[in-house]
Design a protein that fits this description.
The protein is mainly beta. The chain has two helices and nine strands, in the order βββαββαββββ. It is elongated and about 85 Å long.
């Protein structure tokens, strides 16, 4: 299964986990991070999860154009054209991204999941298309129950 390519955009902020400091892909805590001095005006790419199978790139662009200037937008599809249920939008400023992230967004009748996009850094260190990282859960192997020790009488 192949993925549809996403246009490359400038590096964007890495979304913080609870208790972690803010930083961009290069580890710079002041570059392109919403709410951080010196990052105003930077293009910010957002991941849009949970979109309807009917949602089009045009609908995404129309929705986010209400909140700021859209530099790039795509509803992801598989190579055969089937929808993947997520997309990306790049807004021209961190202020616009903060406004969008600060309130629930309803697109095509669904409340969508918005997050800052995380740049995909390949094994050679080069940045590629933005992706969101998922934690992989390994199934725990069941340990065989140990029989109670038999004490000779």
């Amino acid at each position: 299964m192949s993925a549809v390519a996403v246009a490359a955009t400038p590096p964007v902020a890495v979304p913080p986990r609870s208790g972690e400091p803010l930083a961009d892909a290069a580890g710079d805590p002041t570059a392109s991070v919403p709410g951080i001095e010196g990052s105003e005006g930077s293009a910010t790419k957002l991941f849009i999860g949970g979109i309807s199978r009917r949602t089009t790139t045009k609908q995404l662009k129309d929705h986010f154009s209400k909140h700021g200037h859209v530099l790039d937008c795509v509803a992801m599809r598989q190579a055969d054209g089937r929808p993947r249920g997520f997309g990306y939008v790049t807004l021209d400023s961190t202020e616009a991204a903060e406004r969008v992230l600060g309130q629930p967004q309803v697109i095509d009748g669904r409340v969508v999941d918005l997050k800052l996009a995380v740049p995909d850094v390949g094994s050679d260190g080069a940045e590629g298309a933005s992706v969101t990282k998922r934690k992989k859960h390994k199934a725990k192997k069941e340990q065989p129950a140990q029989d109670a020790a038999v004490v000779p009488a």
